[in-house]
Amino acid sequence: MKERLFIGGEWVEPDGGHYEVVDPATEEVVGLAPEASRAQVHEAAAAARQAFTAWSRTRPEERAAILDRAASLVQRDLEAHTEVARAESGATTATARGMQVGVGAARFRRYAKGALEPVEQALPPQISAAGPMGKAGVLGAVAVRRPVGVVTCITSYNNPWANPAGKVAPALAMGNTVVVKPAPQDPLSVYRMAEALQEAGAPPGTVNVVTGSAPAVGEAAVDSGDVDMVSFTGSTAVGRRIAEVCGRGMKRQLMELGGKGAALVFDDADLYTAVRGIGTTFSFYSGQICTAPTRVIAQRGVYDRLVEGLAAYARALRVGDPADPGTVLGPVISSAHRDRVESYVELGRKEGARLVTGGERPACDKGFYVAPTLFADCTKDMRIVREEIFGPVVVAVPFDDEEEGVALAGDSDYGLIDYVFSGDVARAFRVAGELRTGGVGVNTVGRNMEAPFGGFGSSGVGRDVGSYALHAYSELQSVVWPG
């Protein structure tokens, strides 16, 4: 599979040749991704700029129809897309089908409806007394959401369908045009997405896809003078560099960055629910998910039982080939990332944390596998407690009373999603109000996909998902007139 760049509605040979995309499970090459030059990235942004005027003036119903057709086309080719997503990302087949391709199609369907949501909000009339500005009178006003312009969408490797679709679909629904720069590790799925949008009738230049293994490609997608906004999902370190460039150009930003979610488990919690919820850190996409409850902060009355339950959960997981229907835990994305996760496991040992389970590389002939790993008896100052590991590693910290538990949960640079497990719902909601984080799950790790998503602090800037994504990809304009 040898891909070409998608620029201005045309499939273009890359200036920099191609680089290999590797299956994390087999270490085999599954495709060749194009290496764009800076000039080609800027050409993509220029194509998006040229297409913007016409696209932003299309009727909402036309934009909705294109997005809806794209969703149907993705679903039509669900199994083929699933195979590509599984092979390039290392996700299990079930995850690739349901949580990657399936969610990607659902997001196009959701924002087909979103294109039809009202963009005007009437405001109360204002009575103005006579003065230097003129006679007395009544002024009417309306706030209108307008498209931002050209949006660069830089996406993460942990979901090559849902993450790009969650940016592209609402941006297009609002009348923006986009330049998509996928993560270098698994960009092939985004080209399938571009094909679906092209077949659905998206006009040339509305959607552009550029890829590259070198940082220069992403840098060009951010610094182009044709780009009005950057939507980024990835590490906090890269987000800071992007923000600096955006600041110089006064470009809009939407940043969904790292996380180190706290799972605050009280003595009266349902431990079965807590274990299953926290256990998703081990099992779902090998812990490569920023919303994972990776810091378990447990009250001493349940601490030992919770640690035992999590250890049993981790040991029961079947690790292996993600194409095997029985596999629960597949590989991490690359050998470099496996080395990084393993370095944190070694660091945890050196810091004095108690290794309860895991810590050894699984006995697989090939692939970038990491055993589900649990550390207990950690302290708040340990790096494994403070830093995002982004792998199947959970750390546990005990606490005595509510005040201490809340303080431990809040002692983090991150603030994406935390979790509270308690049989006292009133307390759970009270504690949620004390947590400086963009979201709180109460007795669940599930998400409501209409609720705003984003973080405090080092976890990002802005909110998306549901109608909030439409707001994120729009500018507010006020229109005032005499009554």
From TrEMBL:
Keyword Oxidoreductase appears in the UniProt entry: yes
Domain Aldehyde dehydrogenase, residue spans: 11-479
Keywords, in A-Z order: Oxidoreductase
Pfam families the UniProt entry points to: Aldedh (PF00171)
InterPro entries attached to this UniProt entry: Ald_DH/histidinol_DH (IPR016161), Ald_DH_C (IPR016163), Ald_DH_N (IPR016162), Aldehyde_DH_dom (IPR015590)
Keyword Kinase (UniProt): no
Highest taxon, organism lineage: Bacteria
Protein name as catalogued: Aldehyde dehydrogenase family protein
Organism for this UniProt entry: Streptomyces xantholiticus
